[in-house]
Design a protein that fits this description.
Isochorismatase-like_sf; alpha/beta; 5 helices; hydrolase; Rossmann fold; Isochorismatase family protein; Isochorismatase-like_hydrls; two-stranded antiparallel sheet
Length: 181
């Protein structure tokens, strides 16, 4: 079994107040992967960020904390609520995967350099065979530590470079779909 982990595909990620993003095809690719997993009846884990800050768009009760309609969980799918970027920290996700004998995970979602990267690093460190799907993730423009504004694509590619070969195997949607169907 291979679990599909969909990270933070919440309504708050569609806010027009967010910085410019990359990969406008990410949602379509995530939807293709989700459809394939559901068709094969493989495990799907939907992760959402629940902020501890009452003013956050991800605070409990805010519409931004809700899953986007295309990624709403089915009744039998596992939902993980996290308060930090890493979906393994204080959520029981590792235990849930181990209890089902799942040793392989495919990670998609947002944002590449934050929750996706943090979750993939931990998955790899915990010994899971981890794939991050490059074209099924996205991120936002960000100013680096030296004060230079980096485009979302630059931030995305650096995050993927940080992961590939050490914590995860970075692949494309087509490659993943070709290997699991």
């Amino acid at each position: 079994m291979i679990a599909l982990l969909i990270i933070d595909m919440q309504k708050g990620m569609q806010s027009p107040t967010l910085p410019p993003r990359n990969n406008p095809q990410a949602e379509a690719n995530i939807a293709r992967l989700l459809a394939a997993w559901r068709e094969r009846e493989e495990p799907v884990v939907l992760v959402r960020h629940i902020s501890r800050s009452p003013t956050s768009v991800f605070a409990p009760g805010q519409s931004g904390a809700e899953f986007q309609e295309a990624f709403a969980p089915l009744a039998h799918e596992h939902v993980v609520e996290k308060n930090v970027p890493d979906a393994f920290v204080n959520t029981g996700l590792e235990r849930w995967l181990h209890a089902r004998g799942i040793r392989d995970v495919v990670i998609v979602g947002v944002s590449t350099n934050n929750s996706v990267e943090a979750t993939a690093r931990t998955a790899g460190n915990l010994g899971f065979s981890t794939v991050v799907v490059a074209d099924a993730c996205f991120t936002f423009d960000k100013t680096d530590f030296g004060g230079t504004l980096r485009s979302a694509e630059e931030v995305h590619l650096m995050a993927l470079a940080n992961l590939h070969g050490e914590y995860a195997d970075v692949r494309s949607t087509a490659d993943v779909l070709g290997s699991v169907t």
